[in-house]
Amino acid sequence: MEGVDVIGELMRIEKKLENIEKLLRELLEREESYAPMKLSEESLKEFPENEPDMYSEKDLRMR
Prior knowledge:
The chain is mostly helical. Helix content is about 70%, strand content about 0%. It has helices at about 5-45, 45-50. The longest helix is centred in the middle third of the chain and has 39 residues, at about 5-45. The protein is rod-shaped and about 85 Å long.
């Protein structure tokens, strides 16, 4: 194992692990904000489908 800078390699690995940890935190934050939006989207999906149309084709000026 001549010429191997153990301390340097450990520091390089530590930096990579810190970067991975940062990316995982960001991913979890995105997931936490995505989940409520998806839930709202799914729960409100049927709402407009059950509402009557406000305008008919006759109300359109151009077809």
